[in-house]
Amino acid sequence: MDDIRLKQDDILELTIADDGMAGEGVSRVGTYTVFVPFCLKGEKVRAKVTHVRKDGVVFTELKEVLSPSPLRVKPPCNRFTRCGGCDLMHVEYARQTEIKRENVERLFQKNTRLDVEVQPTVPCTSPYAYRNKIQLPFGTVEGRTVLGFYRENSHRVVSITKCFLHGDWVEKLISIFLDYADTFRLSAYNETTGKGDLKHLVARYIDGNLAVVLVTAGRRLPGLDYVPERLKKDFGSFSFYLSDKPEKNNVVMGKSIRPVVETPFVVDILGIKAGINPYSFLQLNAEIRDKIYTAVLEDVFARSDAPIVVDAYAGVGILGAVAAKRGAKVYNIEIVKEAVEDGKALAAKNGVKDRVHFVCGDAAEELPKLISELSDSENFDFGSLNIILDPPRKGCDERVLAALNGLSVPHKLYYISCNPATLTRDLNRLIGYDVLSVTPYDMFCQTRHVETLVRLSRRDINY
């Protein structure tokens, strides 16, 4: 068996031995490890080899499921397996959440020295139509301008007319902008030739309010009155912006936007009113966001009625404002000056400006200075200090972790992560902390991705 030599285009009949990290099945052929997309453990399948790596890892294309798992379900979307958006739509939902827990646990075992039990994944009550934001590239299919998603590992657009991860609002939105493009003969931007008019459509829809940005190649567009008329008819309350982006890079929106129709709207996040603009960062799954924030704050307030909260990646400081509304004293560290100004306005509008303090700067530099200043205070209660990390997908700056390692005061640490690989890497770099709990949350239903909340404390510190 070990002398088998696999090559591209070989057809294999396999039994799937395990569920992989990206919604794929894993099998063995001799010394090869074979990955088959859209499969489940225990299934017998037929697959075609697409690539054989020198290290014995083999990638394939699923051709047929010969013996399906009882956990396999029929996906509602006819673009599934093609559009690159979903990975787990073929899997019964309870099993999806268990796969994510197993994947987080596997990464902890592989990447850290920590002996931890990963809690069950907190599910989403609505595993479809949960996303409040969509970002669609324009493309060309059979000579027509389309909207869709990039096929995985490519810039080839797979056209869609609806998306099951969003509500019906997306279907109406796509129809409006494709009708606009068709009526005024507008073409999708071509990255190779540099020709074309339309690049992306970016939209957010919350509580009946729509904000949509049309990203263009920087060319003047005809017939723009058509769009607001249709949006008003189909949505009522909306804002419509244009963003010119002549630059050739992978950034979606341009450096500036200009309103065509602007109707400011406000969202309520656990009692905090926050205005939304096209550049606002807001988690795309409101239910899971609120569950994570609630879990953090319940733990914070369980130890003190007046805790101190330091958010090292604060953004505009929504979580800090929620904490302040409940009685915490909050210090938000944020490097983006505009976000700091927006955060101050947010705190003022919600009546918590006296309990929320913003530090504009790099967390690696500002965090140790802030903790030093706090610890010098005569009234500082060490047992009430809580530090929150909610970094971008790339994880924490090494200097932030070094700053945490250098802190001598007792505190609780909460790490919220959308990438378990960088999460486990960062936790492995922390020194002097005990992991109290690891809980995955299904922020991104039907996909391989998972949000994780880790609670930690300084070693030998009892609360």
Concise account of the structure shown:
It contains nine helices and 22 strands. It is α/β, with parallel strands linked by helices and 463 residues long.
Descriptive keywords:
463 residues; alpha/beta; Rossmann fold; OB fold (Dihydrolipoamide Acetyltransferase, E2P); seven-stranded mixed sheet; 9 helices; 22 strands; 25% helix
Description:
- The protein has helices spanning 93-111, 169-183, 226-235, 286-303, 318-325, 337-349, 363-375, 398-405, 420-429; strands spanning 11-15, 18-19, 24-29, 32-37, 44-52, 57-67, 133-141, 144-150, 157-159, 198-206, 209-216, 238-244, 258-261, 266-269, 272-275, 308-311, 329-334, 356-360, 385-389, 412-417, 433-441, 451-458.
- By secondary structure, it is of the alpha/beta class.
- The protein folds into three domains: 11-72, Nucleic acid-binding proteins (OB fold (Dihydrolipoamide Acetyltransferase, E2P), Beta Barrel), CATH 2.40.50.140; 109-124 and 285-458, Vaccinia Virus protein VP39 (Rossmann fold), CATH 3.40.50.150; 133-275, Beta Barrel (OB fold (Dihydrolipoamide Acetyltransferase, E2P)), CATH 2.40.50.
- The strands form four sheets. Strands 9-8-7-10-11-12-13 form a seven-stranded mixed β-sheet. Strands 18-17-16-19-20-22-21 form a seven-stranded mixed β-sheet, sandwiched between helices. The protein has a six-stranded mixed β-sheet with strand order 1-5-6-4-3-2, with no helix packed on it.
- Helix 1 (93-111) runs parallel beside helix 9.
- The chain starts with 10 loop residues before the first strand and ends in a 5-residue tail after the last strand.
- The model has no long low-confidence stretch (mean pLDDT 93).
